[in-house]
Amino acid sequence: MREPSTSIARSGTRRRGSVSGRIALLLAGVACSAVVAGFAQAGLGCATQRGPAVVIQEPQPIIRLSPDHKVLPPAVGLYHGVFQPPAPEKLTKLDAYAAKYGKSPAIVMWYQPWIDQPYGQFKTDAVKALLARGIVPLITWEPWNPGGDPHYLTNPAKQPAYKLSKIVRGDYDAYIRSWAKAVDGPIMLRPMHEMNGYWYPWSGLVNGNKPADFRAAWRHVHAIFAEEGVTNVTWVWSINWCSSPNSTKNHYSAYYPGDGYVDWTSISGFNWGSYPKDPKNHSFSYIYTKPFAYLSKLGKPVVISEIACNTGVNKPAWIRDAYKRALSRNDLVKGIVYYDYREVGAGGTQNWHLSSTTASEKAYKSAIASALFVGAAPYSLLGTESVTP
């Protein structure tokens, strides 16, 4: 699922920041616990003086980074995020989003294809602008040429130039290395998502590919970043909620590159509602129960990186239920990104927009109002690193 390609040229240099004591404490995201007085009452000693009332502060919901600049799950709750074009290049719409819904997102997701400059290059300025606002970039990185509008491609998966074996062979090493050298600040990188579908040229059963080729391609890209000494990339391995075709060789597990190559796992899952070619009205539980069961075995935090509801169903109720259930699985789910976009293409129109109805907007605003849906950090994430609480 993606929007038409839009981008502008960016340039910049790679930089590593240093940590100050003040920033380190902020980023740790853990509040101090009160000193417990009156040990005699607690049976922990023979103190006779009564102390002040015990006040225990809960960990604060805040963006957390590891010492090597990777994004950690929040101490409590989950990060809320949004796909909101024309962000990241233009942030005016993102400002309007924050004003309308009461908080700025912790994560902004977008798509970038592996094509010629300027569209395929790392967006240094845009990334810095988000980090300066306390927002983590989540970049969906796609080895293909989506054309002017991918929704009108007749056979998007058939692109021999982007066959997975060519990535493994090294055909794109210079391009991949250019990204590794350009990365600045903590980012989440989501390469080759929804590989268990059939609609992308990196999918495992199309374009001359095999699932083993996907695993090899992922490890190859990861190795290039490691060679460049890049530590501030959080690697996000992302499946489609259902495998298409639904077969043993196309199961999620066929594509997992290994624990050492993945920091977070991820899912895309939509309620297609009135989609004209195949209308369906599926609940959050119907879509997410099966992938949750698999991903929970991997022991990685999960971000729902694409979620939305189409029109033609009770969209406000679906949104309320989805966010409530995502929070109820906070043992596993540590982030959720709403796909706030209206798609027009050969398959018809899918209005995923929150603004499709006033009631949908109200439902979403109410859903993310809780502090457990963590928004942007109240400080810049540029030039910082953190300690693990």
Write the layout of secondary structure elements.
Layout: H1 21-28, H2 39-42, E1 64-65, E2 71-72, E3 78-83, H3 92-101, E4 107-113, H4 124-132, E5 136-142, H5 164-169, H6 173-182, E6 187-191, H7 211-227, E7 233-240, E8 264-271, H8 284-295, E9 302-309, H9 315-328, E10 333-339, E11 342-345, E12 348-351, H10 358-367, E13 373-374
Helix pairs in contact: 9-10
Explained architecture:
This protein is an alpha/beta fold. The protein has a single domain, classed as TIM Barrel, CATH 3.20.20.80. Helices cover 26% and strands 18% of the residues. It has ten helices and 13 strands. Strands 3-4-5-6-7-8-9-10 form an eight-stranded parallel beta barrel. Strands 1-2 form a two-stranded antiparallel ribbon. A two-stranded antiparallel ribbon has the order 11-12. Helix 9 links the parallel strand 9 and strand 10. The N terminus and C terminus are likely disordered.
